[in-house]
Structure formats: structure tokens, C-alpha cells
């Protein structure tokens, strides 16, 4: 059984006991524990179930590579699934629950799958669920979705906050083990600015556990000194609990800081995503130990040898009283020695190698009285929910049992794989290291930056330097090299020297025993989380999967939340063996960020709730909100769709607003309309190119409606242009077009007509603009100003500057409603004051603020087009009968040539007409006008579509605008408009101007 | 003038730094040939400060001049004096192509004040700008983005930073700054 030892645990503060709950059970641990070490200290060996077979799963590792021990953490607004217990710091009151089982962790019905394992081989889902086809959607998928997945999704809104942080440094060092510390030190001493990040709360990595001495001092003492030294350097910043999540182009990297995971509820953000721009990135990310593939290697109690000694040294936890060590290298002997020194029993070390003489570590183990069996292996592990013993065989044979040894833990080591993830994220290549049987960075092929130089430098174990002495030298050099590349070349201290024992070479062992048959291979796990076994990978190879990427997807090897940190190398070695090719030829799958999963909320950062996206408000926004505004999003603006009186429906409000405006006086907040100032001697020439009609001939003081097309001839915007003076025009754009048309203008000025003297400024937000609309508009205006605003002084399509209630105002006499109408612009800061003034003055006439829907209806009654309704990016002005607004005199304008293309001049293009339903009803939005027969796809032929449709309160019936084949030639013809569901409405083709065709109302 | 209101009059928040809406500020967008001697002189008169270099701003309490792009400046003046200054610019630059427009009311202005390192952190949470003292300090100017909106800022002194954004997003900008300045959010980086 696993338990807390009386001594040891260098991370623990035994004076501070912490209480936590696992599956409702109350347990205790110490300050400094991880959740994993605390669970083990309470003999909680079984911590979850696997994905496919629901096999019992125990903790197998001690760090970020852990595949099994994932739990649902927290409750309510702080619940989060799939949290790795080995990287979760214990805190008082922690609550967690195991995953992927029903009804309970101990008794799981789904475990029946393991008995069916023979029938659930690699690719089972693909083979089984393809026939019959309709079953996938309605039977298989719902079933699989129900049984799949590890953790449960949270059901409540996250109560924490998250943020980003931008940092710019010369050198980013990822990993705070001895390699990272030393690289940071030499880079810092050279004079570079350095950011050193470490995913755990502690500095020093695993060197203090593995032992050895540096410059004559024990390695943990050395770590302490270097940490203090770095802490004192003003150009070096150290962040623990911050994982290097990803490396991207041009020295961009993401750091994932878990600010408050260990103290939930503390003020401040829970996670902080560091967005780092670094000149050079040093990956001192260490190495991960590989499991060995033997039958029963997934039974709780089978653990990586390094993890067994981490738990003993760092947390004072023994995984078992009797631990069998099985290895292909010297490093695992350290585990045996440490356990023995702790007073625990190591019945036997099974070493798959056969060596001519003992190495120092082997001799040390033997001197402690540990039995060492060279050339031996595990035939199979005995036990169910925990290990009870191992059966020993020869590594060379097929697994005939020579001896059975009782034990409650197995420490396995298949060698070490450098963590090359961050090196590889941005394209760093790998090379196969034959001697250490691992991939390590191919330093001649690094990911390159804008200068063509490599910008990632691997250091220490991450660079394949697995011995302490090599680590120190490599990391020291890496730091100096990174700093030098950034122009920092001050003298550094000398690289420290290590004293470490010589180690005998490791021997690659990919299957244990070497000649294991199918039965053993089908119990030898590669991927613990996704339940992929040696037999599955061999089957994939047998079925023709040669590419490692294909085999991965077919078997799901390495596709779980741990992304195959333990399984990938073992899996591709098995694949290579089955394909009878060398490992480097098989290659690895692609390493993609993030290194371990990071919270989605950290990626969103501040962008949630009221900060989810910017919401643009006009100066009158608050008034609208206080007066029943029903909002319509228009781009990022919020505009009132209508203002509802208490108890009033949206439809009723809209109808009321239209009627009141037509009969007396309406008020519209038109501030969102784009206002682009175009100024310069060439401004007229410029606008002649941008608009289809002539703008240069416009007189100062006058306005003209204009259409703007892109170079393909399609209509992109419209609006009223006012000429301010000889050199200056103010171009009104649609609300949504303000920024894009500004960009459009700048693009043409900067790329094509850079020699024209024209400047453009976006003044949209400088002005609040209010439409004063209706028969009483002039009366109200005249009451507020001493200036002459009579029809003679300010005729239709003119503008003037006046003082209005003490405010400087510009009045445009333009109309989008067909009524007598003024658009009044004042400084945005005075917008609310003008709005209040117009309301007060208009009160005598029952002034009625109206929203965008009333605006739409009134313009439709007048047959005015709306960009985005009558246009959709495929419509040209000629389709809309706007030929009058296209200059025949101009030599050129944007779109002119495109509009001369044969397709654009095709008489069969659908053209704008009005539609009037024969029964007075309102047509559905976006409906088609049907034609006889069906097309090749069996769909009804169409001959047009509705672009705008409303109930007109003015006319008391449904009106619509539509693009119809030969429409203008078919006046009076009745067409059919089918609804969704099959109902058909008949509509008569009419002139699109439904109301006051002669403009008598607006021209008063 | 009494009716003129800034975007969020009186908005204030106190966390790791103090955030406040700084009221109405006269602002002129000037576009033209920044290398031209006449323009330089006119700018110095309008903004009370010399022409700044690239990504720089020359500012004092009364106003100043900030570099916006190779052909654009932002001139700050007291709010009530904008029209007069534009008139002066128009007169001085009558003979050359240029544009000088009032953008005072199109903008919102915020001020962060407090410990310099904290002020820098609040910005570094929202803007992709190197806010280390080596890279940015009084006299520097950045035109960038703040989360999802355009913004520009400068430091008047080590403990005071002013940010300009569009008026319509003033509430969003204030919410951003308020969030970034929330208690417990110190990064301890700068």
C-alpha cells in the first residue's frame, strides 16, 4: 500500500496539515503536496478509469506527463474537469472527484469493455459504425457520445477572472531546472533581459532528487545559490507556476501562469496568459521517462521509476512497501537505492540488459543488498485494482515464468525522451540519438526567425544532455549564445563542474519480453488514457497504416489529453518494428501547442461578459436606454430598433413611430452614419473616381446622393456628399461602411493615387447627428434659430451652418423618409443637449423618437434602397434602376469597366421592382419568386427574390422590394411567392416607389 | 459650451492604480508634410511644443503634439481653444496641402495614475506594447490597440499615463482599464 513516510519530503511543510475531499471522502495532506502525492499518502492508488475499457487507473507519473490521474476539480462556478493531480497543488478545502466511471470508481459497469477488448481493436469504431449509413447519426453517434469523454463539462458560469500580459525580452528561458537556471544565469550575466518561467512552484527541476554534486556542493545547495543569484539580477525575471505553452513564429511564445489555482478565491486573476516576444527562446524543458511495454503495465501501482523516487524524496510518500524495479538503464537504480535508504524493500531489480561489468550505480545497489537480475524482464504483472506481484521471465524469450515475486509497486524505466515539444512547435527538426534511443533537437535545423537565424536554442536534458555534467555545460553555453545573438556579450562566470557517477549505456527495449506473443501484447499498454496497446499498433501496421500520423489517428495513440507524452516514442518504435524499418524513418507525429492543456478562459483573457466585444454607444445612448429602446446591433453599434412604451409590442411601436413621423414630427439618432472628410486640391477628382456620379461639379453649400462601387462594379456603399468648400467634401457613408470606406479611400490614395493631394479623416464620432423629420420639422427648427431656414434659404439638398440653441450646428436638408427633413450635426459632446432641446421644442407637435425599423419602412415606402438589403455584394447600381446616378460624362470611376462586362450588361439580370401582395399581407423576408419547372437538383426554379418587405402603416398593406427577372418590363403582372412550408402568396409587380412619387412632401 | 459633456463624466476606479475619465480635451488631427519647415513652425505654435520624432510626443499640462503616422499628428490644446488653433493652422498652411480638423469630440481620454510599475502593468495587460522602462517612458507615444479597440497613449510622468480612444467605446475602454487595474492583479514584472 502507498503511505506517508516518517521522514523526507523536501517540498512539505509538515507543520501545516491540509484537509481535502476525494469522491466525498475526507483526507489530509500537507502544505507542499500535490494532489497526487496527497492521494498516495492516503493509499488512494485507484484514481480513475480509462477512456475505452474503463480499466482501473492509478498515478503513473509525477508531473506534466501524467496520463491517468485526472479529476474533476472544484464545485459550481469553479468546477473544472480533467485536472491533472500531479500538477495540482494541494490547498485546504480542495474538493475533487474521479472521472469516467459509473456507478462508482470501485465498481464500474463500463469495465465490461475490457472483457470485450478482443472485439474492440484499433479502428473498431471505423469498421463497426460505417454500416448502415443512417445509423451513424441516429444510433451510433449518440451512443458513443454518451459513453465517451473523460470529465463532465461545467454547468455554471466561471466565477474567476483571467488576463493577458504582454512581455518583451531578449531571452525567454522555458524550464526552471538546473539547465534553465544556468542558461538564465549566463544570459543574464551577458547583459540580456531574461524571463525565466517554470511550470511547477519549485526551482531546480529533478536534479535535487537525482543527486550528484556541482562545484563540490550538493546539487540542491547549488540550486539554492543560483536561484538567489538570479533573483538579485535586475535584468532577470523569474516566474514559477508558469508553463511555456507554445512557441510561434518570430520569437512569439505563450506562457501560462496559474496565478491562483492553489489559492482559489484570492483577489486577482486565476490564470494569466503571457504573450511573450523574445529575441531568443531557450527550451530547458527537461526529459520525460518512458514506460516499458509489458503485460499488465497499466495496473495501479506500476509507476515510472523517476516518479516513485520523486514521491519519496519530494513528498515523503512511498508508493509501496515492496517495489520491484524494472529497467533498461542505470537511472532506475537510483530509485532502488533511494527506496532502500528509506528503509523500504526492493525485492529485485530486473534489468533487461546483459552487461559485461557492473557500473557504479549497479555496484552501489548490490552493496545495499538488492538482488539484481540481469537479462530479465516482467512477464506479467499480477493484480487488478492494485499490483500484487510480478512474474519474472527472460527478456530474450517469449515470457515463460521463471519466478513470481510478491510486491505492491513496480518502478519501471524505459529510458528518457527529451521534451522537444517547444523546439518543434515552430518547425525545429529532430534527430534520432542511437545511443540514448531518443529523439533530440537537430540543432542544425532550428526554427528560424525573420533574420533567417534559429530563434530557439535547446538546453540541457531537452537537448539530449542527460547526464548532470553535460547538462551544466550545455545550458551555460546556451544562455551565453542566446544573449550573444541579442548583442549582449559581457563576460560570464565559468560553467560549473559536476561530479556524477559514470553510467553504463542503456539498451533500447520496446517490448518486454522481446518475444511476447499476442496475449501479452494485448495487455501491454502504450497509451493509458486512450487504451492503446502494443497489439493495436501492430494491427494498424498489419492493416496498411505506414505513416505515423495515420496510425495515430487509426489507433488514437497519443490523441488523449496528455497528447502521448508517455506513449508516442514507444508507439512509434512498435510501429517501426512492425513495419521493419528504423525508427527515424517512421518519425514522430507533429508536436503542437499547447504543451499541456491550458484553460480556454485564459485564451479569452478579459474578453468576456461586458468586455466580450466593444459596444459602440452614441452620445444619446443613455436616453434611448431609459426610454424603452429595443436594441438592434448594427456593426458594433447598438441602435434603437424602436422605442417601446409600457405594454406596447415591438410591431405596434414601429407602426406608431412611422405614423407620427409622417403626420407630424419624428426624431432619429443618426449619429452612427459614417462621416468622412475628404480635403485637398484633388478631392473633387478623387471623389469622381470613387462615386459613380459626378461629385466635382457639386457646388459648396449643396449635397448630392452618390453610389460607390468596388473595382468589380458591385455596389458597396451609398450616401449623401456635402461640399463644404472648394477643397473640402464631407462624405456620408452607411453606418457599417464608415471604417471600411475610410480604409477603401486610404488604400486607393496610398497605393494608386499617392501623388494626388488629398487627405481623408474619419469624423464619424466627432458629430452627433439627429434627423428632424416630418411636416412640422421646419417649424421646430425655426423656433430654435435666428437664421433663415425657409424653403428658399435652405432648399432641398442644401446645407448651412447655423447657431441652434447656442450650439454650432450644421443642417443638411436631406431626406431618407420622403418627409420634410433636416439632419442636424453638432459636436458629439453636445449631442445629448441637442436631443433634449429638440424633444422639448418638438413636444408641442408630439415629437416621436423613432428607431431603425421605422427608418427602414419609410425609406421602403419611398423606394429608397438600403445597402445590405437591396445589395449583397453581387448587385450593381444598374440592377437597382439607379442608372440616373451613374455619370455618362466621366471617363472613369471605380467599377466602370467591370460594369461593361457581358455578364453585367446581360438583360436577364434580375432588376429592382416593387411587390404588392394581392391580399394585403406582408411577404416573408428573403423569399423567392418561383418560376415554372425544376432545376437539375430537383429544386423549384426561381425568377427573383424579395430584398425588403414590410407592413406599411402609411398604406395599410404589405409592401416589398424585389429583384425580378425582366421586372421593370412586367408591371402589373402577378407572381407567386412561396413561403417555407409551401403556402403561396400572390404579389403584383409594381413601381418600387409606393408613396408620394412626386416628392411633394419632402419638397415643401 | 456649458452643455458639452465628455463621454463618461466623472467615471473613476481605484485598484492597483487609479483610473479616471479625464474630461474634455481639445484635439486636432493634422495631416500634411511633416518635414516641411512652415508646417513645423505652425505645429509648434498650435501645440505649444516642437515637432516630435517617430513614436514620440511632446506634451505638457496645456497640450502638446504627438506623432501618429508619417503624415499625421495629434495636437492637444485646451478644449475651448481648438477652433482658434485650427484657424491659425489654416492661415499658416494656406499655401500647402494639409488637413486640420477638430476631433476633440470624437475621442475619450482616460488617465491612469499611481506607482509607475503598476501603471505600466495595466497597459501591458491590454496593449501589445513593450512597457518596460527601457522601451517606453515619458516622451514616448504609442498608437496601438487596447484589447479590441484602437488606442493611443503617452506618459506625462513615471506615475501618470493618458490614453485616447474613440468616444463611442469609452465605456468598453473604461471597463477594460477597470478590469486590468482590479485589486490583486499586480504582476510585479516591471
UniProtKB/TrEMBL annotation, chain A:
Positions of the FAD/NAD(P)-binding domain: 170-423
Single Gene Ontology BP annotation: tetrahydrofolate metabolic process
Domain spans labelled Aminomethyltransferase C-terminal: 911-996
Domain SoxA A3: 523-605
Name of a matching Pfam family: GCV_T
Domain GCVT N-terminal: 620-890
Lyase keyword on record: no
GO molecular function, a single term: sarcosine oxidase activity
Keywords carried by this UniProt record: Oxidoreductase
Transmembrane segments annotated in the record for this chain: none
Key word Oxidoreductase present: yes
Gene3D superfamilies in the cross-refs: 2Fe-2S iron-sulphur cluster binding domain, sarcosine oxidase, alpha subunit, N-terminal domain, FAD/NAD(P)-binding domain, Probable tRNA modification gtpase trme, domain 1
Family per record: Belongs to the GcvT family.
Cross-referenced NCBIfam families: soxA (TIGR01372)
Protein name: Sarcosine oxidase subunit alpha family protein
Species this protein is from: Roseovarius spongiae
Classification lineage: Bacteria, Pseudomonadati, Pseudomonadota, Alphaproteobacteria, Rhodobacterales
UniProtKB/TrEMBL annotation, chain B:
Pfam families from the UniProt entry: SoxG
Protein name listed in UniProt: Sarcosine oxidase subunit gamma
Amino acid at each position: 500500500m502507498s503511505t506517508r513516510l516518517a521522514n523526507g519530503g523536501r517540498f512539505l511543510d509538515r507543520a501545516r496539515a491540509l484537509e481535502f475531499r476525494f469522491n466525498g471522502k475526507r483526507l489530509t495532506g500537507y502544505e507542499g503536496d500535490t494532489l497526487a502525492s496527497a492521494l498516495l499518502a492516503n493509499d488512494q492508488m485507484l484514481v480513475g478509469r480509462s477512456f475505452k475499457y474503463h480499466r482501473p487507473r492509478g498515478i503513473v507519473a509525477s508531473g506534466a506527463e501524467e496520463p491517468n490521474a485526472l479529476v474533476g476539480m472544484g464545485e459550481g462556478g469553479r468546477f473544472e474537469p480533467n485536472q491533472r493531480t500531479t500538477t495540482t497543488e494541494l490547498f485546504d478545502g480542495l474538493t475533487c472527484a474521479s472521472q469516467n466511471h459509473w456507478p462508482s470508481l470501485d465498481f464500474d459497469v463500463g469495465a465490461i469493455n475490457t472483457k470485450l477488448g478482443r472485439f474492440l481493436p484499433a479502428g473498431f469504431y471505423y469498421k463497426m459504425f460505417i454500416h448502415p449509413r443512417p445509423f451513424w447519426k441516429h444510433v451510433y453517434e449518440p451512443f458513443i457520445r454518451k459513453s465517451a469523454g473523460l470529465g463532465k463539462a461545467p454547468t455554471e458560469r466561471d466565477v474567476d477572472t483571467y488576463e493577458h500580459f504582454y512581455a518583451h525580452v531578449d531571452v525567454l528561458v522555458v524550464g526552471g531546472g538546473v539547465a534553465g537556471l544556468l542558461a538564465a544565469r549566463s544570459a543574464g550575466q551577458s547583459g540580456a533581459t531574461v524571463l525565466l518561467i517554470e511550470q511547477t512552484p519549485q526551482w531546480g527541476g529533478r536534479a535535487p532528487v537525482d543527486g550528484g554534486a556541482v562545484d563540490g556542493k550538493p546539487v540542491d545547495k547549488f540550486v539554492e545559490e543560483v536561484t538567489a543569484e538570479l533573483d538579485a539580477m535586475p535584468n532577470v525575471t523569474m516566474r514559477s507556476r508558469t508553463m511555456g505553452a507554445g512557441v510561434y513564429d518570430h520569437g512569439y511564445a505563450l506562457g501560462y501562469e496559474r496565478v491562483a489555482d492553489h489559492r482559489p478565491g484570492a483577489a486577482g486573476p486565476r490564470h494569466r496568459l503571457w504573450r511573450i516576444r523574445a529575441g531568443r527562446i531557450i527550451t530547458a524543458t527537461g526529459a520525460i521517462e518512458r514506460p516499458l511495454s509489458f503485460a499488465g503495465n497499466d495496473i495501479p501501482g506500476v509507476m515510472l521509476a523517476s516518479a516513485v523516487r520523486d514521491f519519496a524524496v519530494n513528498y515523503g510518500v512511498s508508493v509501496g512497501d515492496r517495489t520491484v524495479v524494472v529497467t533498461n538503464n542505470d537511472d532506475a537504480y537510483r530509485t532502488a537505492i533511494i527506496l532502500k535508504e528509506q528503509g523500504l524493500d526492493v525485492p529485485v531489480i530486473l534489468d533487461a540488459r546483459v552487461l559485461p561489468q557492473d557500473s557504479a550505480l549497479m555496484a552501489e545497489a548490490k552493496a545495499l543488498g538488492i538482488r539484481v537480475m540481469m537479462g530479465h524482464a516482467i512477464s506479467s504483472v499480477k493484480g487488478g485494482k492494485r499490483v500484487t506481484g510480478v512474474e519474472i521471465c527472460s527478456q530474450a524469450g517469449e515470457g515463460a515464468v521463471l519466478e513470481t515475486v510478491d510486491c505492491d509497486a513496480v518502478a519501471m524505466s524505459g529510458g528518457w525522451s527529451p521534451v522537444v515539444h517547444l523546439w518543434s512547435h515552430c518547425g525545429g527538426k529532430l534527430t534520432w540519438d542511437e545511443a540514448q534511443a531518443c529523439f533530440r533537437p537537430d540543432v542544425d535545423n532550428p526554427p528560424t526567425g525573420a533574420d533567417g537565424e534559429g530563434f530557439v536554442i535547446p538546453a540541457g536534458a531537452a537537448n539530449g544532455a542527460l547526464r548532470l555534467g553535460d547538462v551544466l555545460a550545455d545550458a551555460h553555453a546556451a544562455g551565453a549564445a542566446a544573449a550573444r545573438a541579442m548583442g549582449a556579450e559581457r563576460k560570464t562566470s565559468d560553467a560549473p563542474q559536476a561530479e556524477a557517477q559514470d553510467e553504463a549505456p542503456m539498451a533500447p527495449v520496446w517490448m518486454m519480453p522481446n518475444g511476447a506473443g499476442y496475449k501479452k501484447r494485448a495487455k501491454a499498454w502504450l497509451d493509458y488514457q486512450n487504451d492503446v496497446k502494443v497489439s493495436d499498433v501492430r494491427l494498424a501496421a498489419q492493416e496498411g497504416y505506414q505513416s505515423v500520423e495515420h496510425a495515430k489517428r487509426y489507433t488514437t495513440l497519443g490523441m488523449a489529453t496528455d497528447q502521448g507524452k508517455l506513449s508516442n516514442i514507444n508507439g512509434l518504435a512498435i510501429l517501426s518494428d512492425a513495419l521493419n524499418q528504423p525508427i527515424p524513418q517512421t518519425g514522430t507525429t507533429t508536436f503542437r501547442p499547447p504543451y499541456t492543456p491550458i484553460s480556454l478562459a485564459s485564451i479569452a483573457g478579459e474578453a468576456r461578459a461586458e468586455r466580450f466585444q466593444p459596444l459602440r454607444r452614441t452620445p444619446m445612448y443613455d436616453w434611448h436606454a431609459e426610454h424603452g429602446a429595443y436594441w438592434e446591433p448594427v456593426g458594433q453599434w447598438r441602435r434603437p430598433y424602436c422605442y417601446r412604451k409600457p405594454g406596447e409590442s415591438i410591431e405596434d411601436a414601429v407602426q406608431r413611430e412611422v405614423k407620427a413621423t409622417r403626420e407630424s414630427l419624428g426624431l432619429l439618432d443618426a449619429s452612427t452614419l459614417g462621416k468622412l472628410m475628404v480635403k485637398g486640391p484633388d478631392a473633387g477628382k478623387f471623389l469622381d473616381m470613387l462615386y459613380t456620379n459626378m461629385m466635382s461639379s457639386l457646388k459648396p453649400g449643396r449635397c448630392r446622393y452618390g453610389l460607390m462601387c468596388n473595382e468589380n462594379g458591385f455596389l458597396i456603399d451609398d450616401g449623401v456628399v456635402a461640399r463644404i468648400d472648394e477643397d473640402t467634401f464631407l462624405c456620408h457613408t452607411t453606418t457599417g461602411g464608415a471604417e471600411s470606406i475610410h480604409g477603401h479611400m486610404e488604400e486607393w490614395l496610398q497605393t494608386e493615387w499617392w501623388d494626388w493631394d488629398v487627405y481623408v479623416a474619419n469624423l464619424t464620432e466627432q458629430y452627433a447627428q439627429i434627423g428632424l423629420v416630418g411636416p412640422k420639422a421646419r417649424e421646430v427648427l425655426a423656433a430654435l434659430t435666428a437664421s433663415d431656414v425657409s424653403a428658399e434659404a435652405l432648399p432641398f439638398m442644401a446645407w448651412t451652418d447655423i447657431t441652434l440653441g447656442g450650439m454650432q450646428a450644421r443642417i443638411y436638408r436631406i431626406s431618407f423618409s420622403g418627409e420634410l427633413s433636416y439632419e442636424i450635426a453638432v459636436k458629439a459632446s453636445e449631442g445629448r443637449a441637442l436631443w433634449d432641446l429638440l424633444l422639448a421644442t418638438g413636444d408641442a407637435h408630439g415629437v416621436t423618437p423613432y428607431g431603425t425599423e421605422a427608418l427602414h419602412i419609410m425609406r421602403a415606402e419611398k423606394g429608397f434602397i438600403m445597402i445590405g438589403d437591396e445589395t449583397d455584394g453581387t448587385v450593381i447600381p444598374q440592377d437597382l434602376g439607379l442608372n440616373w446616378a451613374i455619370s455618362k460624362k466621366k471617363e472613369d470611376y471605380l467599377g466602370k469597366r467591370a460594369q461593361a462586362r457581358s455578364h453585367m450588361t446581360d438583360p436577364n439580370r434580375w432588376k429592382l421592382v416593387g411587390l404588392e401582395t394581392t391580399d394585403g399581407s406582408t411577404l416573408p423576408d428573403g423569399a423567392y419568386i418561383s418560376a415554372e419547372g425544376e432545376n437539375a437538383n430537383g429544386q423549384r426554379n426561381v425568377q427573383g427574390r424579395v430584398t425588403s418587405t414590410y407592413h406599411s402603416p402609411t398604406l395599410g398593406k404589405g409592401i416589398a422590394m424585389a429583384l425580378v427577372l425582366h421586372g421593370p418590363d412586367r408591371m402589373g403582372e402577378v407572381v407567386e411567392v412561396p413561403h417555407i412550408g409551401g403556402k403561396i402568396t400572390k404579389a403584383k409587380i409594381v413601381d418600387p416607389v409606393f408613396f408620394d412619387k412626386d416628392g411633394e412632401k419632402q419638397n415643401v | 459650451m456649458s452643455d458639452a459633456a465628455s463621454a463618461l463624466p466623472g467615471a473613476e476606479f481605484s485598484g492597483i492604480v487609479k483610473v479616471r475619465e479625464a474630461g474634455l480635451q481639445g484635439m486636432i488631427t493634422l495631416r500634411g508634410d511633416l518635414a516641411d519647415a512652415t508646417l513645423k513652425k505652425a505645429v509648434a505654435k498650435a501645440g505649444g511644443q516642437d515637432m516630435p520624432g517617430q513614436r514620440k510626443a511632446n506634451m505638457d499640462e496645456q497640450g502638446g503634439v504627438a506623432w501618429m503616422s508619417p503624415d499625421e499628428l495629434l495636437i492637444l490644446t485646451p478644449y475651448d481653444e481648438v477652433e482658434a488653433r485650427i484657424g491659425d493652422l489654416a492661415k499658416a498652411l494656406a499655401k500647402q496641402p494639409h488637413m486640420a480638423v477638430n476631433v476633440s469630440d470624437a475621442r475619450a481620454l482616460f488617465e491612469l495614475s499611481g506607482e509607475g510599475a503598476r501603471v505600466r502593468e495595466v497597459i501591458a495587460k491590454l496593449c501589445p506594447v513593450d512597457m518596460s522602462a527601457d522601451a517606453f517612458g515619458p516622451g514616448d507615444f504609442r498608437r496601438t490597440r487596447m484589447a479590441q479597440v484602437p488606442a493611443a497613449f503617452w506618459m506625462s510622468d513615471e506615475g501618470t499615463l493618458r490614453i485616447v480612444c474613440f468616444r463611442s467605446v469609452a465605456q468598453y475602454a473604461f471597463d477594460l482599464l477597470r478590469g486590468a487595474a482590479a485589486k490583486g492583479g499586480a504582476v510585479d514584472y516591471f
